[in-house]
Amino acid sequence: MQYLYPAALILLIISALANKKKTIKALSSAAKKFLNILPSFLTMIALLGIFTLIIPIESVGDILSQHTNWLGLLIALFVGSIVFVPGFIAYPLSAVLLQKGVPYYIIAGFTTCLMLVGFASLPVEITYFGKKIAITRNIAGFIIALIISLIVGIIYREF
User: Which tens digits make up the pLDDT trace of 114-130?
Assistant: First the structure.
């Protein structure tokens, strides 16, 4: 990540040297798009903040470790569906759940939903992709997470 910003700056300078007008036009267009998405993005961040305030991530592990059955899987899928989390946060969280004794199939469903489904990010997705595609993508992600968790449960013989 630390190399990405200098690389972007170098490429921006090269672009400006090649064609200053197109570079300014591209930066202007990017700024307009950023300002258009900003309200939805701030709404998403606010929803995530409220969710983590109401249900701290640590308590999710406690809840899932108490319900190591089908109810636990449904809770994991629905809680995981609320927020959209990148892998570098989801995987360490999964390690914490594993230490708390949560079965692999529940962790698989929870982690997959965390990364594939995000109802808190739905307004941003609708802005970019449209309502039908955004909802279809989230439903497909939920179904995929359910299938993955069932496969993991079968492989680890947790049913």
Answer: 999 988 888 888 888 99
